[in-house]
Design a protein that fits this description.
binds fe (ii) ion; 2 domains; Four Helix Bundle (Hemerythrin (Met), subunit A); transmembrane helix; membrane; Hemerythrin-like; Hemerythrin HHE cation binding domain protein; mainly alpha; transmembrane
């Protein structure tokens, strides 16, 4: 079956895992992650509890951002390098969608999950994430499949997975969506995101523990800066 983009190529969604190049190929890895993301997004509609909705959006957000960052740093550069006609209009379009999702998720970090605005922003972000997955499965990945061999598809898959695991976990709409800017900022952002994730885990936002610990955290940060400054001088 050909895909709805009428490009004459078979959508990755209509291929078996063998046809995609096996479980480690970038086609299979993308397809699995898109399906898991979709299931997670569906669970948002299964509850009306603001706390639970906030937790689901945070999980979708982290997962979608890691997935997209690994595309921007690994998959899209490989696609632009391998495609003979250097067609990068498609990757620019998808990077634009990633930017929209980054901006929406950043706005959601400051929004109240019980508000109507929050729900509207979530639904818009989910729609863009789904649209993005279709662009990749129906267009970008089948085009890549035409020019890359199975070994290459698996090598790109392994590099994408490695990048996905080590990528930033929070929205960063102000960094470039393309190399080298995103590659250079990716490592320090991944480290600082994990520090923030650790603090949020120990001291949940809005909790009494967090309010009580805030002065201690400020004193600790100032102490580290002062001690660090003395050592350098
Ligand atoms: Fe994407
Ligand atoms: Fe994707």
């Amino acid at each position: 079956m050909t895909n709805p983009r009428h490009n004459g190529l078979r959508s990755v969604a209509d291929q078996t895992e063998d046809e995609r190049g096996g479980p480690g190929s970038i086609l299979s890895r993308q397809s699995r992650d898109h399906a898991e993301l979709d299931e997670l997004m569906r669970s948002y509609d299964a509850t009306s509890d603001p706390g639970e909705r906030g937790r689901i959006v945070a999980e979708v957000g982290e997962r979608a951002l890691r997935h997209a960052f690994a595309e921007e740093t690994v998959l899209f550069p490989a696609y632009r390098r391998l495609l003979a006609d250097g067609d990068d209009e498609l990757t620019r379009h998808i990077e634009g969608d990633h930017q929209t999702v980054n901006e929406a998720l950043e706005a959601l970090q400051r929004a109240d999950p019980a508000s109507a605005d929050y729900d509207a922003t979530v639904r818009h972000a989910f729609e863009v994430i789904r649209h993005d997955a279709h662009d990749e499965e129906d267009d970008l990945l089948p085009r890549l499949q035409q020019v890359a061999g199975v070994h290459e598809l698996r090598a790109i898959g392994a590099a994408w997975e490695l990048q996905r695991r080590t990528s930033p976990t929070r929205p960063h709409p102000r960094i470039p969506r393309e190399p080298p800017g995103n590659v250079l900022t990716g490592i320090p952002l991944a480290v600082s995101d994990r520090v923030k994730d650790g603090v949020d885990h120990l001291l949940p936002v809005g909790s009494t523990r967090r309010r009580l610990a805030a002065p201690v955290v400020v004193v600790a940060v100032v102490a580290v800066l002062v001690i660090g400054g003395r050592r350098r001088s």
